Design the sequence.
């Protein structure tokens, strides 16, 4: 997949300047990513997907985000939710993911209503942050079956069943097209609805990960990718660049060497922690009867830590490059906006440090979300 990405990289890089202005990917870029399989990363191989392992998925998303935060975000979201092919009945999965252009825009930002009806459910609600909405063929919101029941499901609504609201006017991650969408009493056959913590229809640990952890995982590696892209941009562009009033190029300054050395070590350490935490979570899932609480909390700590590291690294890189980082024509300014926006996602909330600390002290975490 890395090889495939490099083949289309010139197209992606050449059009990245348009993403903010258009507030979405171009049809050409979306088509290239679709055809190359980047929205099928976790789809079971039996359904024509890549069937990547959890760690390989993280590597691919991080690589994409290093080139462009918007690309990484949509590869993470689209490629991540393709794991639903391992939850749905075969016929339903083939209808959702059968075409190469299939893209599922998911939303966990609100909970709608799923009212049982003959042969299925009636779906009602409005949901925010449906990244990739302009190109989505299916929308997957969270719903509660019968208000007050506590049973939460994912409903896979076809595009024609929802109303799209183009309200994504933001500073960072502008190109992700993370629109709101709504449904009003839309009928959905039962085979297109699965529990938020489903019984998998395919083998593989990726389909048995805890629901919240699985959603977090689709985007949590994006900030680190953006940070690594910022480092790469500084290294490639600073050889002849001198800041105003300085005679030595940035690339020859000892301060720059020390700062980049620190940035690299911190990014690599944060990435290693994320991979270690994901490996431990997978091992716990595979171990029958294992208590997942500690592994889940550890993974969420790793995600929030990585986001904090990524924001810090991007800011330090931009400080090193100076006023040049303010120019929209340079590859620095948008990375700062994008990494700040990505780190604000609830998947990487600083609240996880509170939960992790409380758990370490033996406190009550029964009402916490992790």
Sequence:
């Amino acid at each position: 997949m890395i090889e495939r990405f490099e083949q289309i990289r010139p197209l992606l890089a050449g059009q990245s300047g348009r993403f903010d202005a258009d507030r979405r990917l171009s049809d050409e870029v979306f088509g290239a990513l679709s055809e190359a399989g980047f929205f099928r990363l976790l789809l079971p191989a039996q359904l024509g997907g890549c069937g990547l392992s959890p760690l390989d998925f993280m590597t691919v998303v991080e690589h994409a985000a290093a080139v462009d935060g918007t690309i990484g975000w949509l590869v993470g979201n689209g490629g991540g939710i393709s794991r639903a092919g391992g939850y749905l009945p075969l016929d339903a999965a083939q209808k959702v993911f059968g075409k190469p252009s299939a893209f599922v825009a998911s939303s966990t930002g609100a909970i709608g209503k799923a009212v049982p009806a003959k042969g299925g459910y009636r779906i009602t609600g409005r949901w925010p942050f449906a990244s990739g909405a302009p190109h989505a063929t299916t929308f997957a919101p969270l719903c509660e079956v019968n208000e007050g029941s506590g049973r939460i499901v994912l409903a896979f609504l076809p595009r024609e069943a929802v109303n799209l609201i183009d309200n994504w006017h933001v500073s960072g991650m502008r190109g992700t097209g993370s629109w709101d969408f709504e449904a009003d009493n839309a009928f959905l056959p039962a085979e297109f609805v699965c529990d938020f913590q489903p019984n998998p229809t395919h083998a593989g640990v990726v389909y048995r990960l805890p629901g919240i952890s699985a959603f977090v995982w689709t985007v949590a590696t994006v900030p680190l990718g953006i940070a690594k892209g910022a480092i790469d941009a500084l290294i490639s562009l600073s050889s002849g660049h001198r800041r105003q009033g300085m005679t030595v190029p940035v690339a020859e300054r000892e301060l720059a060497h020390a700062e980049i050395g620190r940035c690299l070590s911190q990014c690599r350490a944060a990435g290693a922690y994320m991979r270690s935490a994901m490996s431990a979570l997978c091992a716990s899932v595979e171990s029958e009867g294992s208590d997942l609480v500690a592994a889940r909390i550890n993974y969420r700590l790793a995600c929030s830590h990585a986001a904090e590291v990524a924001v810090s690294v991007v800011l330090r890189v931009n400080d090193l490059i100076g006023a040049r980082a303010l120019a929209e024509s340079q590859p620095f300014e948008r990375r700062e906006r994008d990494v700040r926006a990505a780190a604000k996602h609830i998947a990487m909330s600083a609240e996880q440090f509170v939960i992790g600390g409380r758990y370490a002290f033996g406190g009550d975490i029964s009402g916490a979300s992790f």
